[in-house]
UniProtKB/TrEMBL annotation:
The lineage of its organism: Bacteria, Pseudomonadati, Pseudomonadota, Gammaproteobacteria, Pseudomonadales. This is Uncharacterized protein.
Length: 129
């Protein structure tokens, strides 16, 4: 059984496969779980400077360290989610662990809030050579 990427031509001959790539891990970092929230709008992030990072040749994966032990859906306790990342240019990426949203109060005014409900996750930055 073959896992990964495999490209075949019209005659079924492999023209590209995983043996054509070398993958190099540039960085790994654990992001702690967080359950918090507050008023206002956030724009901060966890800054990671990764020597050798280039979005043209690298990718970022964010994987939870644990998965929900029960089915998710309506009526279930919320398990949380993984953070996301933003390319900041150069060799920097930002890890975002919250979401901004708003609610409307009884007067029709917007109340801006943020919420962080992330599970412990591992961030890996990988370069394809």
């Amino acid at each position: 059984m073959i896992y990964g990427l495999e490209v075949l031509d019209a005659k079924g001959v492999q023209t590209l496969g995983m043996e054509d790539f070398t993958i190099q891990r540039l960085a790994t970092m654990t992001i702690p779980a967080s359950r918090s929230g507050g008023l206002g709008v956030r724009g901060d992030y966890i800054l990671i400077n990764v020597d050798g990072y280039d979005p043209a040749t690298c990718f970022v994966t964010i994987t939870p360290k644990a998965y929900s032990p029960y089915p998710q859906g309506a009526g279930q306790a919320y398990w949380g989610c993984v953070p996301t990342y933003k390319d900041l240019g150069g060799t920097q990426i930002g890890i975002i662990t919250y979401g901004n949203y708003y609610e409307v109060d009884y007067k029709g005014d917007w109340i801006f809030k943020w919420k962080s409900e992330v599970v412990e996750s591992v961030v890996e930055v990988v370069r394809v050579i």
